[in-house]
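Q: A reviewer asked whether we had any structural model of the full assembly, not just the individual parts. We don't, so I'm hoping you can provide one. Inputs are below.
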Amino acid sequence: MPYVNIKITNEGATKEQKAELIKGVTELLQRVLNKNPQTTVVVIDEVETDNWGIGGESVTNRRLQGK
Amino acid sequence: MPYVNIKITNEGATKEQKAELIKGVTELLQRVLNKNPQTTVVVIDEVETDNWGIGGESVTNRRLQGK
Amino acid sequence: MPYVNIKITNEGATKEQKAELIKGVTELLQRVLNKNPQTTVVVIDEVETDNWGIGGESVTNRRLQGK
Amino acid sequence: MPYVNIKITNEGATKEQKAELIKGVTELLQRVLNKNPQTTVVVIDEVETDNWGIGGESVTNRRLQGK
Amino acid sequence: MPYVNIKITNEGATKEQKAELIKGVTELLQRVLNKNPQTTVVVIDEVETDNWGIGGESVTNRRLQGK
Amino acid sequence: MPYVNIKITNEGATKEQKAELIKGVTELLQRVLNKNPQTTVVVIDEVETDNWGIGGESVTNRRLQGK
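A: Here is a predicted structure for the entire assembly that you could use as a starting point for your response.
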């Protein structure tokens, strides 16, 4: 019954990589807390780099500076 | 003053259906908890089926298997 | 498979009222979008009035002013 | 280490305005709570007006009525 | 830079189990998407069973029925 | 109409500091995007240090190591 939300920047994660995240986090919750995988929900949000900030700057600007 | 976030897979909900969800959940909060509808905020997120997992698999893969 | 998060201020909603919100929003998603109620997840967050702001003030301060 | 999520309607915020929000909220957390800006994360979600409700109606419908 | 939110019912997860979830999901993001673990943020919410619904009922009520 | 969620660790933010965050972020959205402060909603979540992870460890463990 757990609900997991993963937010990453939108920088080319493939369908296969996202399927691997879903499988991995569902297994982790089963292994650590014995949660039923059938009702574990995972939602992945891919966020534009203009809309993600860290260190007071957008990721877009950080990438331009080579950070 | 409540805030409601509804997440569904992006599979063709119409503008009218989304308006009905907004109206319905706002009325529910007014009826059950006497919340002021004027300040009830509802945000609907439509999530790609590649990005939604249940049972350890993406909804895209489940649809391909007829689940 | 929908996921719904309802945030309200922590001002005495009863167990019965919360059960009614869960039932009501699950039925709404079934009626409007034909979503399977068995996999609809609802999470209610009750937030302290010091931690909820509207109009630039906390709800605690608004209540003191009779708003 | 704070995490901030800002949700606004998708009505033309520019890249520069979003950078200003990121900078402003990061500085606010540093000033008020002495939080380290280097690990403050900000995510901005721009939500379609069909998917945002207030007062029981979508913002799309409110705009049509001149609200 | 990813942000992960894990929501589970408040039913006795230990400090050690929560540390294992944090470690596990951080490693998963590093392995699958090469994300920097130093800036991966994980937040775990433990939700009262009265406030978590599935199948239109609270988890509290489901537990009473032996579901 | 914006909605802002601020998550911080539960390490003693006062009522006054939280009121200052609410005021500050509401003013920021008015200044940068001309958003109406009367309908700007801010929710602050204070998260236990056992439940917040960064760098693959809980904040509780990091504090013990003097990080």
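A: Points you may want to mention in the reply: Chain A touches chain E at residues 1-9, 13, 17, 20-21, 24-25, 28-29, 32-33, 35, 39, 52, 54, 59 (CB under 8 Å). Chain A has two helices and four strands.
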